[in-house]
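Project standup — Tuesday

K.O.: blocked on the structure for the chain from last sprint. Re-posting the sequence here as requested.
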Amino acid sequence: MCSEPAFQSVSSSKRPARPHHDRWIVAIGIFKLLQAAAFLLLGFGALRLLHKDLLDVAVHWILALRFNPEGHFVSLVLGEVALVDPHRIKQISAAIFLIAALDALEGTGLVLEKAWAEFVTLILTASFLPLEMVAIFHRPTWIRVGLAVINIAVVLYLLRFVKMRMRERRLRHAGGEPELRGR
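H.V.: unblocked you, prediction finished:
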């Protein structure tokens, strides 16, 4: 007689258990996907300006926001807007869509918990920190400071997470155990 049950439970099968999900990696991925969506909207908004008179649009918003139309700030803004031509709008839109694509790539990879996404996000986020610091230095705003703090936290967390993950892989390979995660 066989003492083993005819059906094995899922927990007693030979397959490794589903690995633990890191909720912060997934949260960073969701943040990147939301950021990608925002950049997509911004890119389409910039493209909508392609065949419009930018000065008319700027004056409309200046009046709607109740700025002094004869003020120094308004004169500076209108002077800069007058320099933007359709070719420049296309360049700006292309850059915005590129950022959206990178954010979507990072976000998708992180939500799916792919190792390559951890490295890509770490490198890209860290590479933009100096530009964020320069922008804060020249013109500090709460939004810039808040986004910089979030990005610094992401970089620090990913540094710690990637080091931990690399240590785990080294131990797994040294011990001869098969890798549990499909990366």
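K.O.: great, moving the ticket to review. Residues 22-113 form one domain. Residues 136 and 145 are 7 Å apart (CA to CA).
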